[in-house]
Design a protein that fits this description.
With 122 residues, the protein is mainly beta. Helices cover 0% and strands 58% of the residues. It has a single domain, classed as Jelly Rolls (Sandwich), CATH 2.60.120.10. The strands form 3 sheets. A 6-stranded mixed β-sheet has the order 2-1-10-7-12-5, with no helix packed on it. A 4-stranded antiparallel β-sheet has the order 6-11-8-9, with no helix packed on it. A hairpin with a 7-residue loop joins β3 and β4.
C-alpha cells in the first residue's frame, strides 16, 4: 500500500516521497469472511480531529513526532522546502516524518477537517 510522505534529507530539505507499507492477504469481519489486503498493525499514541477555515496557512513547521494525517472533508495542501506542493482531498492519507529539517507549510483551500494519528515509533 503506497501513500505520500513528507520527509527531510541529510541536508535538511523536506520532500514529498512515497511510503510503501507491506500488506498481506487477510480475512476481515465475521464469517463468511471476505478476504482483502491488510497491513500489519502499528501502534498509535493519540488521535485528534482538527478543523480550520478556508485559506488558513500554517507557517513552516516540523512534525513533532511521526504522524499520519487523514483528510476527512474538503481540500488542503502541503508544501515542502524544496517547493513541491501536494493537494489532498477527502479520504487521502499523508505520512509526516519530517521531524527534522526545514519543515513544511500547510494550507486549507476550503474549510477543512483533518484527523491526526500520532505514531509511537518507526
Amino acid at each position: 500500500m503506497k501513500f505520500p510522505r513528507i520527509y527531510a534529507d541529510e541536508q535538511g530539505e523536506t520532500h514529498i516521497g512515497v511510503r510503501d507499507i507491506p500488506e498481506h492477504e487477510a480475512p476481515l469481519g465475521p464469517p463468511p469472511n471476505p478476504v482483502g489486503q491488510m497491513t500489519e498493525a502499528d501502534a498509535a499514541s493519540t488521535f485528534v480531529v482538527f478543523s480550520a477555515p478556508a485559506e488558513t496557512k500554517v507557517p513552516s513547521h516540523n512534525a513533532p513526532q511521526p504522524y499520519i494525517c487523514i483528510v476527512l472533508s474538503v481540500e488542503g495542501e502541503v508544501e515542502t522546502s524544496d517547493g513541491t506542493t501536494l493537494r489532498l482531498g477527502p479520504g487521502e492519507v499523508l505520512y509526516c516524518d519530517d521531524t527534522t529539517g526545514k519543515g513544511h507549510v500547510t494550507r486549507s483551500i476550503t474549510d477543512i477537517r483533518l484527523a491526526f494519528i500520532n505514531r509511537t515509533g518507526e
